[in-house]
Amino acid sequence: MDEKLLEIRNLAVEYHTDEAIVYAVNNIDLVVKKGETIGLVGETGAGKTTIARSILRILPSVTARIVSGEILFNGEDLLKLSEREMRKVRGSKIAMIFQDPMTALNPIETVGFQIAEAIQQHNKISRAEAERRACDMLELVGIPMERYSEYPHQFSGGMKQRVVIAMALSCNPELLLADEPTTALDVTIQAQVLDLMQSLKERLGTSVVLITHDLGVVANTCDSVAVVYAGEIVEYGTVEHIFDFAAHPYTLGLFGSLPKLDSKERRLKPIKGLMPDPTDLPKGCRFYERCPEASKECAEAVPADVEVAPGHIVKCIKVKGGAV
Amino acid sequence: MTPLLEVRNLKKYFRVRAGLLHAVDDVSFTLDKGKTLGVVGESGCGKTTLGRTVLHLTEPTDGQIFFEGKDITSPTKNELRRLREDMQIIFQDPYSSLNPRMSVSETIMEPLILRGDMTKTEMFAEVRKLMDTVGIASRFENAYPHELDGGRRQRIGIARALALEPKFIVCDEPVSALDVSIQAQIINLMLDLQEERGLTYLFITHDLSVVKYISDDIMVMYLGQVVEKAPADELFANTLHPYSQALLSAIPIPSIRHKQERILLRGEITSPVNPEPGCRFMARCQYAAEECKQPQKLEESSPGHYVLCCRYKEINNL
To answer: Considering the entire predicted model, what is its pTM?
Structure first.
């Protein structure tokens, strides 16, 4: 499974508003291998969703600018495709599950129609055949096909997310971008949906980019992890690297912030302060102001990627082939 | 010692087109001063309605509420006003619970103005003190909510709740809308305040790791009823009710060593409108049997540990 499906090189995305320029994604590199699930972890505003939207080129057209970079999908640069060619990729080769199933569906069309529409869009088949496949997809995600003609408001949140998953997987995409697919759901429903995604992924061999802020979800579903902070990937490695040998102070801070079920300590160890303003990023390390390990040089020098172990990359000048 | 808060057989029904919606159904608990009672459950289980009913933000259908030993089930307007000085609430969403047209200092000052026993200078001094307590720099005094991030907004919500020096605070999902690093800051702040001021919390959340961390006792709610209640450690060590077991097993643990045996529940929460008299969890329960159709009684399995399940002994080999 070492074959590269998606390779992002040096991607930078900015949002231009009247007042300021938001530096949302700053020169990131990322590889998604065939069949793997990679977790993009980070807080609100870190740039996770912008990365996913750049891959599909569905950024807001007025404000967003992809300043530099390449997004190679099966060796082809998606950023160089025409809009017409890109439409053939969206939904068929790369599909996306959005965070909020309540707003991702069209309220005035039946769920069955919405799935069939996506199938017909990408396959030269008859209406009836598309409908039949849509029924199969519903059954696949655990919804009886008798509900084909029902509208989104007749479904609960968990069921709606299943419909969205059915729609995303209906054309057998090679890559699935899942943007916080379970954040809006209750834990028991989240468990059902994660379980469903896992089994479908194994059956269909889809690669998944899972965007989440929940390290528990990552531990349970991902093969590798990229920790995103202020538009940069500050740490990347296998799930074992990140959970057992986390080296970047931000990653360590994230783990310290979590209440542990087996801990007796009466206080959490939060990261102090807030994420820097993306319109006015510090010039050295972006994490400098909040970092317990920070020293003078961190404020000046832009940290380079250090490979602390094969395949485990940390963006911190204090890390030299070992721990901090 | 009289408990600070006692709730007996509290019920809150809403009349809807399809019938009676049992939002809170026969809930009883006591809460001692300085302690935290955690209420967990999924959306629609009635936990928020419970918090609001205790505070008289909605009126109970039936049952009694005692505060410091005094019956406050149906207070007069004046009594309620005084009561509100002692009982406050922190809301879930710091984005919608603040008035966008009021500055930070106006928001925090409003309860002080309503109480009306301070001069303007005293009130300004008090607002500064409160801002300092919750960790908002004084330069934000004249800022408006839209200029602030979620963590700071929630700190304002806390400052406002503290302004009248309450004894009891209902915390309705106070950290659910925040990022983990900010969530940890707010939880620590709430624990510090509890220690300093001897505050009593009713802590409502769906996040089970947070609730274990902050609570002395925990109640698990399902469709308006308390299905299990126990001291926090006991609940996690000896989970008895099938629903609590499924709920706890569904939390994704942030560790790769921990191989989880997830109990996947069938289906979703059923309707709280005109529920059948038997166990409400029955339709999703893997242990459901004929006897579950009878009304269930809360039983004490060990001191302080209550469970609402007629088969709990069988299921857990007790």
So the answer is: 0.86
